[in-house]
What we know:
- The protein is an alpha/beta fold.
- It has 2 domains: 7-185 and 275-282, Rossmann fold (3-Layer(aba) Sandwich); 205-257, 2-Layer Sandwich (Alpha-Beta Plaits).
- It contains 10 helices and 12 strands.
- Helix 1 links the parallel strand 1 and strand 2 (36-41).
- The protein is globular, with a radius of gyration of 19 Å.
Amino acid sequence: MTEKIQKAFVVYCSPAGSTRHVSRIIVKKLQEMEIEVIECDLSKKFSETSIITKINRVKSNACLFVGSPVYVSHAIPPVMNFIARLQKNPHMPVVPFVTWGGATSGIALYEMGKALTKKDMRVVGGAKILARHSMMWQMENPLGENHPDKTGDQMIQKMITGICGKLSDGGNGSIDLSVLSYYPPDIVAEMKKMTLKKAKSHMPKRKVDEDACTECKECSSVCPTDAISFTPYPEFEKNCIFCFNCVKICPEDAIQADFSKVEKRIKDRAELFKETPPSQIFI
């Protein structure tokens, strides 16, 4: 029995833009193969329920691609929450993919794959793609500088071709999830203990310059989790994921944070893990 893909869903959250870049490469390649594509950026408000309803209705000839940046060794909460809301669907092949900033891609890809299999979905591929570290945009020589690059784009295109080909050839198409867990067990165990909540104390503290703030609310417009309230100046709620888009986007530089103290910690982590290859596809 063949399972030629006729429709694809590409769902992602991309505070820094790197995961969006990879998603657009996926969308473009699928469209070149004359596959209908429905794209959903989870950071856009009110889009999640609609896309979940459409995915849950599909019974054949479709594939779901789910993408996330890696934060503190894990996929970010909006993506994992999206997966948790999906209904079980044994008819749906899925492809998790992550972008990571050169320190470590952690266990994000494996955790996404595991969560998707709990929905009875078949993980038929995956990818990790190197990107510029999202907290180093102001620094010289940031980790992952000039990434994602052309080589990464070509790898994603190759992955799409391979996945669509093997699904068309029939068979289950599933990959062994163990290939998505590429760190030794002891390191995996330590990474499992890490959480964004626990890392909060190590994150740069944001300060709002009330004299500079014009209450324009641009910071809220780029917050992927709608975690900024105003009284009347910006305040950051518990569901903040520390993407620091608010700091990057503020036209008055009214939201400030000192990243100099985290630079060494990020680079030390990269040196500790020395993760290779930096970009990889799994088919």
